[in-house]
Each structure stands twice: as C-alpha cells, then as structure tokens.
Amino acid sequence: MEEVRKKEGLTWFVNRPQVIFGFSPYSLMNLIGTLCVYAAICKHEGVPLIFPGTKAAWECYSIASDADLIAEQHVWGAVGPHARNEAFNISNGDVFKWKHLWKVLADKFGIEDYGFEEGSSCLRLSELMKDKGNVWEEIVKENQLQQTKLDEVGDWWFADVILGGEAFLYTMNKAKEHGFFGFRNSTKSFINWIDRTKAYKIVP
Fold this sequence. Notes:
- By secondary structure, this protein is of the alpha/beta class.
- 45% of the residues lie in helices and 12% in strands.
- The chain contains 11 helices and 8 strands.
- Keywords: Membrane, Transmembrane, Transmembrane helix.
- This is Putative oxidoreductase.
- One of its GO terms (molecular function) is oxidoreductase activity, acting on the CH-CH group of donors.
C-alpha cells in the first residue's frame, strides 16, 4: 500500500455511510430486507408487528444513507477534484424516528396491530426468528417468491445491533462545503426500497 500511495497523481477518497437503506438480499447488513422478512412472518402468523428494539431506538432521531445516494457520492468523489485525499460522511441529510417508519412498514404488509410494547424486555430478532425457517418456506411457496432460506434473507444480528440503542448522528457539512449537495427523503427512501424488495419477489 505504501508503494501504491507514492505513485504520482494517485489520490484517494473515503465515504462513510450510516445505516444503509437499499436492496441487498443475501447481504450480511441488509436492514430493510430483514425488516420486510420479519413483517411478512408477522403477517403470515397473524401476530402484531412489534418493534424489535429498545425504547431509546424507537424514540430517538436516527439517520440513514440511501444506497443510490452513496453511489452518487462515489461518482462525485471519483471524477471530481474536490474530494481528493478526503473522507466524507454520507447520509440522506434528514432525520427520522423508527416509531414513524414502523407505521410505514406495517402499512406495506397490511398489518393493523403494530408498535412498541411498553414495559416489556427488548425483543431480539435473533431469538425470535431462530425457529421460523419452516414458516418462511411456507411463505415462499404460498406467494411464489424467489427460493430463499430464512438465514439468506434475514440478518437478525444486524437488526439487533441497529435497533438496540440510541442512534449515532452526524452531519453532511463537510461534503456540502466541498461541493456535494445530494440528499434523500428518508421516508421515501424507506418506501422505495421496500417496494423494490417486493418487486423482486424476495418478500410478498
């Protein structure tokens, strides 16, 4: 790496996303796909869509990074002069609360009973979903989805980490000061990637 770094004209660029909203089945950090699978199982079993996290995560402001926005910053950093030898945050530029997005998720899967259970211990998807493989097989068959196994489309440990405490916030100020002004509406981003996951028949 040191020899490469010394090459004449070589520059580098780093971008630092937050929780990524995107379409990435089979990824080890696919939060939207994981939440969609959880919602599909709740719908199939006729149980409430309970928020699988802490009250702090439910109530706090959070930020996310749309996958297409990350790609836009990649292109900007690769071809433009303003990102040379710099590192930048990349997020949608707004904030959201999971208690608001949870209604969106419930609506997308036709679930009327949803929310955060006050006074209960933190629900962990890694525990709740460990015996749901057969249930997922039924859902895939009944809805003619792409053939997947539950552990291929549900990254429960990752959801447990993200929803297990208060979110970390940062700003896009440095990127803006250097000329990158891209942004996304996080609610619209969330909806878009749920719809994309459904369109590719990963979830019903």
